[in-house]
Amino acid sequence: MPRLALAPALLAFSFAALPCRAETAYGPELQGFDYPFPVERYEFTSQRQPLQMAYLDVKPDKPNGHTVVLLHGKNFCAATWEGQIRALTGAGYRVVAPDQIGFCKSSKPGAYQFSFRQLAENTHALLDKLGIAKPIVVGHSTGGMLAAHYALLYPKEVEQLVMVNPVGLEDWSAKGLPPISIARWYERELKTSAESIRNYEKATYYSGRWEARYEPWVEMLAGLNRGPGKEAVAWDSALLYDMIVTQPVVYRFPQIAVPTLLLIGQKDNTAIGKDLAPPEVRPTLGNYPELGKAAAKAIPGATLVEFPESGHAPQMSEPEAFNKALIDGIGR
């Protein structure tokens, strides 16, 4: 297995450390926000409409013959995987990181039946175009739910599955979250601001701590949500939240038939729509120390690695430990 060399610049997230201009507005496909690697486009037709999926395809100097596909979370983009891309390519892996339809630099269709199956099929079509037959699929947060669906849909075409603090480790509706209309999700999304993003991420992603290197990712999302396409962005976001809440994957964990690694920050308390749940229900949702163990037990042969001091995004809060655990885990 290739040894991981962690340069100081990598751990500092060189791209994320760049200063951001206050109140910058970005286009509906994140026009004006630069990624740390060249962005490529996959143009295809889905649900009777032309779409484009932005993606990064970063190749190592010394290939080891394996490809890692990185699937971002709801409030993340391909660019937020920068530290992992540098670590993985340094260890010999080719890395493909797409922006899913409805997110970041990809199309924002006004009428689209979002489902995890559809997003998995879109991703599979992209990988087929790139000639990638059996990747290691890594998904974080909502991307973890997507990665699980991908492994269920294409079990013979996945080398390994890695889920990083995935949402969907529990069925929130079954636990008491009331029905939330798309109109209500849309209304909430239109109110998104840098302050609301920062406060949520500090509490949930970074367990109450904040560092300057997280700020560019806040401005990335805030600029997208304050830009000229903010209504389209908010509408797709509402559709995606409905998808996440109404399409739980936890019941199918026993059917996952590929080697699986779970990387779980123990201070995570994520539960979509938790603030809309009855007060007596809220404390029961998003208990990741319990949820991670339950998922590892439900998925045949799964390996669980816990990060005691991390919240929802261990790959960003403690990248050195995370990158080592990831590369050690997929290299076994």
TrEMBL record:
Which stretches make up the AB hydrolase-1 domain? 67-319
Which domain of life does this protein belong to?
A: Bacteria
Q: Name one Pfam family in it.
A: Abhydrolase_1
Q: Known SUPFAM superfamilies for this protein?
A: alpha/beta-Hydrolases
What are the UniProt keywords, alphabetically?
Hydrolase, Signal
Gene Ontology molecular function, alphabetical: hydrolase activity
Signal peptide interval: 1-22
**What is the protein name given in its UniProt record?**
Alpha/beta fold hydrolase
